[in-house]
Amino acid sequence: MQDAAPQPHQEGTAPPEGGAGGLPQFDLAAWPGQMAWFLIFFAIVFVLMVRVFVPRIGGAIEARDAKMSADVAEAWRMKEEAEAQAKAAAEETARARASAQQVAAEARAKAQGETAARLAAEEAKLAETAASAEARIAAARATAMGNVGTIAKDAAGAIVQKLTGKAATATELASAARG
Is the sign of the CA dihedral 110, 112, 118, 123 positive or negative? Predict the structure, then answer.
């Protein structure tokens, strides 16, 4: 049975059978064949790149640029539309606010008018009641003042009689009440 494992190459000995030793890329005898295959693969890859891959990549880039441009244009259009809608909404809000303020002012004026009318009616009732009360007070005062003279004469007569023991005359009581 043969040993299938390769024997390590030792320095100073001859290379194994069938090989020139070293890397084949650096073997000058193999270069013409390697150059031919390199040029064949280079030409194939070059043709594929020029005819297939670059146009596809270029088309994808152009499509992406076109989509981005369309998206940017759509965004600008939507922005302008949104600004127009915002402006319209602001104008509508301002009109509604002005209308609400006008309605509130009218309601306030109406309420103030009604309040002023009720207040005037109540003040008229109060003035009438006060005039009536003042008239009654004046009548009661006049009556009371009319009775004061009589009461003063009676009181003076009672005091004189109690102090002196005799009754005062009507002229004495009249002079005492006047003075």
Answer: negative
3 state DSSP class of 120 = helix
* Alpha carbon distances (Å) from 168 to 149, 152, 179: 16, 13, 16
- Give the distance, in angstroms, between the CA of residue 86 and the centroid of all CA atoms in the same chain: 16
Note the helical H segments in 13-168: 31-48, 54-164
Cα torsion 77, 78, 81, 82: sign: negative
Q: What is the pLDDT of residues 76-115, one digit of tens each?
A: 999 999 999 999 999 999 999 999 999 999 999 999 999 9
CA distance 70 to 149: 115
Of 163, 1, 161, nearest to 173 by C-alpha is 161
pTM above 0.70, yes or no: no
Token pair belonging to 80: 């302008």
